[in-house]
Structure formats: structure tokens, C-alpha cells
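HUMAN: Would you supply a protein with C-alpha cells?

ASSISTANT:
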Amino acid sequence: MAEKTKTLRDLFHETLKDIYFAEKKILAALPKMAKAAQSEELKAAFEKHESETEDHVARLEKVFTEIDETPRGKTCDAILGIIEEGQEVMKEFKGKPALDAGLLAAAQAVEHYEIARYGTLKTWASRSFNAILIHNDLLVVQHSIFRDVPRHDQNKPISTQMTA
């Protein structure tokens, strides 16, 4: 029996499962990062990002529904590695002046991973589906992530203070 040809839709679905898994893992990591943060400003940023990540998960679930698939994740080694690095920072720098700078760096790695995944999904959705809703949901999630990137620039003084 011939193997089914894999299509861009199949790749879209696999990548959607990947980012869904990642967002769920991020949701589990953010409260720990907020608790570990020494700066009240950084704690608040992690708490805000937790709320935004809950919105991302809800939108991803909507996208799954729109492509007639059940929302479920697929193990993403990339996000597991990024989260593990953040956990190492929390352990190795606990109580140290550089802790918040390390946490901020870990958060930036997560953001860049999300930007790459959502940008790819948005492009594929616009090219392979006749579904404006999918594209719009992914676009909203991607915009919320891009909106977060300047926040990291605003937090440069925080990371500078933490390394001083």
C-alpha cells in the first residue's frame, strides 16, 4: 500500500500541535519564573504574560476546531530545552544579583521561538487554506507576541540593574 503524500496542511497541523504543546509548557513555567523573579516589575511581566499565554492557547484551540482537528500537543524538544535552561538559571542564580537578567534572557528565548512558529503558521494558513479565520486568529496571536518584543527592550534597564 502506498504511503499517503504529506501536504502543507499536514505540516501545518503538526506545527500547530508543536506550538500548542509549547504554549502549555510555557503556561506551567511562567508562575515559577514569576515566583523566582526578584524585581516586582519582572514578576508583573511574567504574570501578564501568563494571562496572554492563556489567550494564545484558547486561540490555538479555535484554530484546531477550524481545521476539524482535536486540540492536542506534540512533544516539542525545542521548548523543553528552552524551559530547562530557564530552570537551570533559577537554580544556579537563586538569590544572586544576575537572576532577573537570566530570567529575562530565558523569556526572550521563549518569545523568539513563538515568533518563529506563529509567523510560519500564519504564512502557511494564508497560502494553503481558504480560511480567513485561521489566518486572523494566528495573526492576532502573532501580533500579541510582537507587541511583547518591545517590552523586552523596555526591560533592558532591569537586566542592566541586575548585572550591576
Summary: The chain has six helices and no strands. The first helix runs from residue 8 to 36. The two ends are 65 Å apart (CA to CA). The mean pLDDT is 83.
